[in-house]
Design goal:
This protein is mainly alpha-helical and 172 residues long. The chain has 7 helices and 4 strands.
């Protein structure tokens, strides 16, 4: 057995099965339906003299969501005897995380560094890390993109975007 065979087999091992995903999503949606149903009941879910109360339609939508969730849960449990197909394997999960983690960090960084600095870091990081483009080309492209975005939104259209300490230091 070669190293290549071991690596490819490890990458193909499932992270989670369809059964697990079906059960967890159905339970989360059922919990959401219960919360929405309770809140709709709390604000009023009946018909008043002047028409439906605020929770009337949301209550029945929550009932439908709850019914669909129970159906999904029962279907998943009924199929439990069938072979558990993998929902995602390790290689697929790794590739999804390569996009999710930087995008999540971009959302956090936008709050503290502003949109333009966070965008610069995101574009340069994606180009260098995932695209395997040289560092200088990644930085140059990201700088051009960020400047174009800044000139378009801030100067040309005067759109208020989240700014951070760099923009404040430059007087924007």
């Amino acid at each position: 057995m070669t190293v290549q065979d071991t690596t490819s087999r490890a990458d193909e091992r499932p992270v989670v099965s369809y059964f697990s995903v079906d059960v967890v999503v159905s339970l989360l949606l059922l919990a959401l339906a219960l919360v929405l149903g309770w809140d709709s009941w709390r604000v009023g879910n009946s018909w008043a003299d002047d028409g439906p109360q605020a929770g009337y339609f949301p209550f029945y939508l929550a009932v439908l969501l709850g019914g669909a969730s129970v159906y999904g849960l029962v279907s998943a449990v009924a199929k439990r005897g069938v072979a558990h197909e993998p929902f995602v394997n390790r290689d697929q999960f790794r590739r999804v995380m390569q996009v999710f983690v930087p995008t999540f960090a971009f959302c956090l960084f936008t709050q503290f560094l502003g949109l333009y600095v966070a965008s610069f870091l995101l574009v340069a990081g994606f180009m260098w890390w995932i695209g395997r483009i040289s560092l200088w080309a990644s930085l140059a492209t990201s700088l051009i993109f960020t400047l174009a975005m800044f000139l378009t939104f801030e100067i040309a259209f005067n759109v208020i975007m989240p700014k951070g300490p760099l923009e404040a230091a430059l007087g924007f």
